[in-house]
Design a protein that fits this description.
By secondary structure, this protein is an alpha/beta fold. The protein folds into three domains: about 70 residues, Udp-n-acetylmuramoylalanyl-d-glutamate--2,6- Diaminopimelate Ligase, Chain: A, domain 1; about 200 residues, Mur-like, catalytic domain (UDP-N-acetylmuramoyl-L-alanine:D-glutamate ligase, 3-Layer(aba) Sandwich); about 120 residues, Protein-Tyrosine Phosphatase, Chain A (Alpha-Beta Complex). The protein has 16 helices and 20 strands. The radius of gyration is 23 Å and the shape is globular.
């Protein structure tokens, strides 16, 4: 078997083009045959090579490839991919910014990328490739001239952030927030805090720099270490204040930063991007232009117009914390309102309690129509008379219920695919 040094030379010869899907091969890439719960990449090595891969990395014996010099045998394809990505990161000069948190990771990553890429050669996590397979692929996007790499890290259990952090070895670390997400693995909010702060613990141990939201008491307690801190107040390195508007605007030293982002929950995401831009010497006007140019997409806080209706589509994912913030932001809009919520997943034993809290919050804050879709929400239909409950989207569609309100919020967990509601709005 080849050692890491030799395997790395092969990757370098392929310009660090790494593929794991035989259907999406880039010419000259190295294909890693990864095994998962429902797939085995070793079964698609021939397809990968035929589709243009130069090499394939396999961890399974196959007599058909014994004499094939384009197939390299390793003990475990995934761990080899991870080890190589860490090896690559160590050889790169780029400053790595590691981001995790319960909500807003991807939006924050994209905002920071938008700001930093205006002045520096910058890469960021591909899509939502923020787990033990996706993160190594993102690291291989770093090239010799890359100045910044913004790496997103997701987790649904303890130890995962620590492992991902050990791969990307960030120079800067930021936790967007601590919310009630993935409670099946984290159990409660204390578990969430413990898991997410694995990033800060690595940063502190390795004498790197924290980016801290000083208005978050769970982050502020780390301020005795090397850090960049932002918040509303003169005691912060970067003093920001929210300027009320339909979109998130931020005031700093009498300078107004403007965005096309909806929702007060995006305020701290924007502040993080501004703080890093200022820290790295980017002109305020350039930062502002980058923020103005950023357009939310992929079902994240999108503002969509259908006829005379204004729809806030925030259906990429949902947990109790993000739903609560979305409801509160939506409730202050003027005009009649309707809210359409889908079930929140991965809440474990807290699921029923958290869904019931959201129902109550909606009824207290939304004076117009409340629609709840999904089996968990539906389980409360006999006890709640002031709202509309449907077991699934099909039942809702077949009901022909009309949503005539001018302002509509649509949110739910990814598996609910709540964006399909758009097709039934006129």
């Amino acid at each position: 078997m080849l050692g890491i040094d030799e395997l790395y030379k092969e990757l370098k010869s392929s310009n660090f083009l790494v593929d794991i899907d035989s259907r999406k091969i880039r010419k000259g890439s190295v294909f890693f045959a990864i095994k998962g719960d429902n797939f085995n990449g070793n079964e698609f090595i021939s397809d990968a090579l035929n589709n243009g891969s130069r090499l394939a990395i396999s961890d399974q014996d196959n007599p058909n490839f014994n004499d094939n010099h384009n197939v390299i045998k390793v003990s475990n394809s995934l761990s080899t991919l991870q080890e190589l990505s860490k090896f690559h990161r160590k050889k790169c000069n780029a400053k790595v910014i590691g981001i995790t948190g319960s909500n807003g990771k991807t939006t924050t990553k994209e905002l920071i990328y938008s700001v930093l890429s205006s002045n520096f050669k910058t890469i960021c996590t591909l899509g939502n490739f923020n787990n033990h397979i996706g993160l190594p692929l993102s690291l291989f996007e770093i090239r010799h001239d890359t100045e910044f790499a913004i790496i997103e890290m997701g987790a649904n259990n303890f130890g995962e952030i620590a492992f991902l952090t050990s791969l990307c070895e960030p120079d800067y670390g930021y936790i967007t927030n601590f919310g009630k997400a993935h409670l099946e693995g984290f159990i409660d909010i204390d578990g969430v805090i413990k898991a997410k702060t694995e990033l800060y613990e690595w940063i502190i141990k390795n004498d790197k720099t924290l980016l801290i939201n000083g208005e978050d008491k769970n982050q502020k307690k780390f301020d005795n270490h090397k850090h960049i801190m932002f918040g509303c107040g003169d005691n912060f390195q970067f003093n920001f204040r929210e300027k009320n508007n339909d979109f998130v605007n931020v005031l700093h030293d009498n300078y107004l930063f403007e965005t096309k982002l909806y929702g007060t929950y995006n305020y701290s995401n924007v502040c993080a991007a501004i703080a890093l831009g200022l820290e790295f010497g980017i002109d305020k006007n350039q930062i502002n232009q980058s923020l103005k140019n950023y357009q939310p997409n992929n079902n994240r806080s999108e503002i969509i117009k259908i006829g005379d209706k204004r729809i806030v589509l925030d259906a990429y994912n949902a947990n109790p914390s993000s739903v609560e913030e979305a409801i509160k932001s939506f409730s202050i809009l003027e005009g009649d309102k309707a809210i359409v919520l889908g079930d929140m997943y991965e809440l474990g034993k807290e699921s029923s309690i958290e869904h019931k809290k959201i129902i109550k919050l909606c009824q207290e804050n939304i004076n117009s129509k409340c629609i709840f879709i999904g089996e968990t929400f539906y389980s409360f239909s006999n006890n709640e008379r002031n709202s509309n409950f449907f077991k699934n989207k099909s039942d809702f569609f077949s009901s022909n219920m009309e949503i005539g309100e001018k302002n509509i919020l649509i949110k739910g967990s990814r598996g609910m695919e709540m964006e399909e509601i758009l097709k039934h709005l006129k």
